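Recall the central idea of this unit: under ordinary conditions, the amino acid sequence of a chain determines the structure it adopts. In this exercise we apply that idea directly, starting from the sequence alone.
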Amino acid sequence: MSSTYVATPEVDAGKTPPAGSDRSRAEGRLAAKLVAPAVIVMLVVTAFPILRALWLSFYSYSLTAPDDREFVGLSNYVTALTDSLFWRDIGVTVLYMLVTVAIELVIGFIFAMVMHRVIFARGVIRTSILIPYGIITVVSGFAWQFAFTYQNGFVNGWLPFIDEQFNWFGDTTPAVIAIMVSEIWKTTPFMSLLLLAGLAQVSEDMIEAAKVDGATWWQRLWKVILPNMRAAIMVAVLFRALDAYRIFDNIYVMTAGAVGTESISFLTYRQTIEQFQLGMGSALAVLLFLSVLLVAFLIVKLFRVDLAQARGE
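Accordingly, the structure predicted from this sequence is:
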């Protein structure tokens, strides 16, 4: 009895290239070529201000006495990091970011579901939801400041549990709430727009299969829709968190940083523009930049999204 032997190529499992690696490298090279001109322009435009700010942060330098500039090393950073005002403003800034982004994520997802599922008057509904985002932040800030004033605003009259003479800008907590409301109203449409793009990537076949298996709406939401939107949610939260962390316009318009509503961006503005302390202001700007990078790093680590897997590779 004879047997036939068929030679098969040996495969080293440890050296097998991952699927889609060639396409990934090709896409990476193409992406680098496409973004290179924009990156070069951005570096040329922003490199000097960044390096200039870093250099000034090592000096005691005031515009009121430009000839008295003195090298102080890390003294400005030590002063900022040991000042209770700096850490109070950091705490207020983090509070702004956490509360507004969390509420915007929930409301934005509801709006995205409406825009995604609506059949009749889809264009009108989407346009109506996105209108607040098209309004200039300063204009919306002034509008909400007027709404919350007890002399002629309408908020006190609309809330039955609030006294009509209640001053929203007389204490820290109500003033912070008023600023958060204006921020949420203005930027929730942006969050919903990003989440709508994520919803469009969820396969309808998967949702229908879950329906056939008897999954309820909540089960489909938690087991099918949200897991497949993980990358889109991360991008939406990342963009909005970084923007909310640098909040300035609404604070400037509504309270000018009074009654404990000052953010770290507003503190940097006060030191640099109002008090002409370029050295300390530059140090605060560098610390703000580093803290923004830290926030971005923590958000990316929190979601742990594999972007290559999200692209289907």
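The chain has a mean pLDDT of 86.
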